[in-house]
Write a structure and sequence with these properties.
380 residues, Rossmann fold, 3-stranded antiparallel sheet, 6-stranded parallel sheet, alpha/beta, 14 helices, 2 domains, formyl-coa transferase, domain 3
């Protein structure tokens, strides 16, 4: 038993954020169906992973949305589903007569999730973009830089996944809870620019209280502090230091073998640059594994920076089964962990389009009609 057992989700095929959102729902029991285009009409950036972790636990159907019969297939799916996720620019679904108004007329209790970068309204809404653009305009990207350097995007974790897919999943769950009370569906406008801004709430608070400046790279949490920083080791590895509290800082100094009397006060900010140089010099005297051995079991808040090819082998991660092997692909396990009804990652139900016939049958098409839809290229 999983929390979302019985919930049917339509995931209109898209890039990273919407498949990630669907993956979260699938891990916790939802029956997620990917609606993809015909194989001869592949997108500009195709699905290059044969065993895409985002597709785990999902079924899929290939539909021609330029064909009236293909659109009717999606309409039937909508009538029997609780959730629809779509990642297109505003107006695309409306042009197919599959927008919120059309969908909710078919199914008044449908949760219609629109996951985009810029959102449904605003001057940028119709523009193209990617994670880096959305987090740039949100203000969040400006926080990721060292003093005197240009902003460095945190891959596409912040906009696509944290501010996009994950918050969209939360919006869907909130709407499902409310639907349980009212019986009514609604539209979830999940914009990555909104999500990235929301994730930056702390920094707006700090700035308003004069607890940080806009000289990014000189503050407590943006690489300004010597005790909240990464340091290179003698074997070209790195250690992550986060000893913010005084008692943890004392453990850091002890582990580094530095005489506290030789150091300025922890929060003597004008001395932070020289303190960083001192810490860097010390960290370069030992390997990453040696420093790990020194700090493990202490409250110094020091940890090794592991590559994603190393994370599974770390004892803590191994004990928690942080990563799982599914279809020969190492990937993160479902999160968060529920005690009574935990998530479970299952293999994808075959390559894209493998489930077209069974899904058409489930929504009421006869065997003859299924064959006709395939022959007419309304489905594949």
């Amino acid at each position: 038993m999983r929390p979302l057992d019985g919930i049917k989700v339509i995931e209109m095929a898209g890039l990273a954020p919407s498949p990630y959102c669907g993956m979260i729902l699938s891990d916790f029991g939802a029956d997620v169906v990917i609606v993809d285009r015909l194989s001869k009409g592949q997108p500009e950036i195709p699905n290059v992973m044969e065993k895409n972790p985002f597709d785990r636990g999902k079924r899929s159907i290939r539909v021609n949305l330029k064909n009236d019969d293909g659109v009717e297939i999606v309409r039937r799916l909508i009538a029997s589903s609780q959730v629809l996720i779509e990642p297109y620019r505003p107006g695309v679904m409306e042009s197919l007569s599959l927008g919120p108004e059309d969908a909710l007329s078919l199914n008044p209790s449908l949760i219609y999730a629109r996951l985009t970068g810029w959102g449904q309204k605003g001057p940028y809404a119709p523009m193209a973009g990617h994670d880096i653009n959305y987090i740039a305009v949100s203000g969040a990207l400006s926080l990721f830089r060292r003093a005197g350097e240009r902003p460095l995007p945190p891959c596409n974790l912040l906009g696509d996944f944290a501010g996009g897919g994950m918050l969209c999943a939360m919006g869907i769950l909130l709407a499902l809870i409310e639907c349980g009370r009212s019986g009514k569906g609604q539209v979830v406008d999940a914009a990555m620019v909104d999500g990235a801004s929301n994730l930056s709430t702390l920094f707006y608070g700090l700035l308003a209280h004069n607890l940080m400046t806009l000289e990014i790279g000189t503050n407590l949490l943006d690489s300004g502090a010597p005790f909240y920083e990464t340091y290179e080791t003698s074997d070209d590895g790195f250690m992550a230091v986060g000893a913010i509290e005084q008692r943890f800082y004392a453990e850091l100094i002890k582990g580094l073998g530095i005489d506290p009397a030789s150091m300025p006060h922890q929060y003597e900010m004008d001395k932070w640059p020289q303190m960083k140089l001192r810490f860097a010099e010390v960290f370069r005297t030992k390997t990453r594994d040696q420093w790990t051995g020194i700090f493990e079991g202490t409250d110094a808040c020091v940890a090794p920076v592991l590559g994603i090819d190393e994370a599974a082998g770390h004892p803590h991660n191994a004990q928690r089964k942080l990563l799982i092997n599914l279809d020969g692909v190492l990937q993160p396990a479902p999160a968060p962990r529920l005690s009574r009804t935990p998530g479970r990652a299952e293999p994808q139900a075959g390559p894209r389009g493998s489930n077209t016939k069974e899904l058409l049958s489930e929504i009421g098409y006869s065997e003859k009609e299924v064959q006709e839809l395939i022959e007419s290229e309304a489905a594949e």
